[in-house]
From TrEMBL:
InterPro entries the record matches: ATPase_NBD, MreB, MreB_MamK-like
Residues annotated as binding ATP: T18, A19, N20, G162, G163, T164, E210, E211, I212, K213, G326, G327, A328, L329
Pfam families: MreB_Mbl
Domain of life according to the entry: Bacteria
Family, as annotated: Belongs to the FtsA/MreB family.
PANTHER family in the record: CELL SHAPE-DETERMINING PROTEIN MREB
Cell compartment(s), UniProt: Cytoplasm
Annotated transmembrane regions: none
Annotated HAMAP family: MreB
Main function: Forms membrane-associated dynamic filaments that are essential for cell shape determination. Acts by regulating cell wall synthesis and cell elongation, and thus cell shape. A feedback loop between cell geometry and MreB localization may maintain elongated cell shape by targeting cell wall growth to regions of negative cell wall curvature.
Chief location category: cytoplasm
Name recorded for this polypeptide: Cell shape-determining protein MreB
Gene name for this UniProt entry: mreB
């Protein structure tokens, strides 16, 4: 009993995402949610800032400072920077208990290779972890969404993160079939950037593209006309994006103000003149720009269903497909998937935190969920787009 009390609050689950890192501490819940960004001084290699402070510097740094994202496509791209970032987050969570070495459960994509798997474990160990266990993101997302993963019934989860889209059918605490497509939120941002550059010769940054996606992005015409769900995850546009709402008025009782925006004004650099330029972008244009990455996600879901055993496919028809991750907040994505696949599609109650919550439950109930962790790599199911 004393030993359990000693480690209570130390063990943690880490959702090591391409865009954001979330930390769940045993007995305390999610205590940290910060961008997976590190600002580094290239002159001496020192770390200047990590997380939110580092993300604020993206695209606004002098020549001797660079904002680095140590994870790409859901896996570690820069081992040393990833280790420093993990050490900073663990130290920030642990506070003054410098001698504490927590047991850590880390989420990884289902398509992770053996080399990528060892890199995550070594980075977490060198960052101060006592033990490191890995859990595949679809399992964690399903647990966090409240799906009955331990029962002999089929559950399908689509986790759309920043670097990867994880599609999996889960039953009896394990993955029956899965597909990891390296097309997700970042690919959508790149698609918007490329579209604006090609159509209007206007260069915009990653942050501006992300704000456009959040503000007026959609996956289907029906999605752009529906009332967006209320979520803390939808942030207000920053100064490079101004949103216009159809029928907007100053009257607080005017229900037209509840409609989603149909256009926005963006600011960037004109590639022809090199001068700043203001441009108006419509929701239809953004939906067209997002068509390719959305098509890739739909194809991944369809391919996974093709490989699903018939009995489990029947369960999925009854229960539906559950969307998690930041990409699940894209307007109309559930409508588009449901129309393409003729299967009910639901969005999890808290899609951004599902993976972190599921990882935390693995920490809280480590013994019973032990079989869901440390699964073998699924290299053959990984698809690069």
């Amino acid at each position: 009993m004393a030993q359990n009390k000693s480690f209570n609050g130390r063990d943690m689950g880490i959702d090591l995402g391409t865009a954001n890192t979330l930390v769940y501490v045993r007995g305390r819940g999610i205590v940290l949610n910060e961008p997976s960004v590190v600002a580094v001084n290239t002159a001496d290699g020192s770390v200047l800032s990590v997380g939110s402070a580092a993300k604020e510097t993206m695209g606004r740094t002098p020549t001797n400072i660079v904002a680095v994202r140590p994870l790409r496509d859901g896996v570690i791209a820069d081992f040393e920077i990833a280790e420093r970032m993990l050490r900073y987050f663990i130290k920030k969570v642990m506070g003054s208990r410098r001698l504490a070495r927590p047991r850590v459960v880390v989420c990884v994509p289902s398509g992770i290779t053996g080399v990528e798997r060892r890199a995550v474990m070594e980075a977490a160990t060198r960052a101060g972890a006592r033990q490191v266990h890995l859990v595949e993101e679809p399992i964690a997302a399903a647990i966090g969404a409240g799906l009955p993963v331990s029962e002999p019934t089929g559950c399908m989860v689509v986790d759309i993160g920043g670097g990867t889209t994880e599609v999996a059918v889960v039953s009896l605490g394990g993955i029956v079939t899965a597909r990891s497509v390296r097309t997700a939120g970042d690919s959508m941002d790149v698609a918007i950037t490329s579209y604006v550059k090609k159509q209007y010769a206007l260069a915009i940054g990653e942050r501006t593209a992300e704000e456009i996606k959040v503000s007026i992005g959609s996956a289907s015409p029906a999605g752009s006309l529906s009332v967006p769900r209320v979520s803390e995850a939808v942030r207000r546009p920053e100064r490079n994006v101004e949103v216009f709402i159809p029928g907007q008025s100053e009257d607080p009782e005017d229900t037209q103000a509840l409609l989603p925006p149909d256009r926005c004004t963006i600011r960037g650099r004109d590639q022809a003149t090199g001068l700043p330029k203001v441009l108006e972008l419509t929701a239809d244009e953004v939906r067209h720009a997002l068509s390719e990455p959305v098509d890739s996600i739909v194809a991944a879901v369809r391919s996974t269903l093709d490989e699903t055993p018939p009995e489990l496919a029947g369960d999925i028809m009854d229960r539906g497909i559950v969307l998690t991750g930041g990409g699940a907040l894209l307007r109309g994505l559930d409508v588009r998937l449901g129309r393409e696949l003729n299967i009910p599609v639901l969005v999890a109650d808290d899609p951004l935190d599902c993976v972190a919550i599921g990882t935390g439950r693995c920490v809280e109930d480590f013994a019973s969920l032990r079989t869901a962790m440390d699964a073998r790599p699924r290299r053959a199911d990984t698809v690069r787009v």
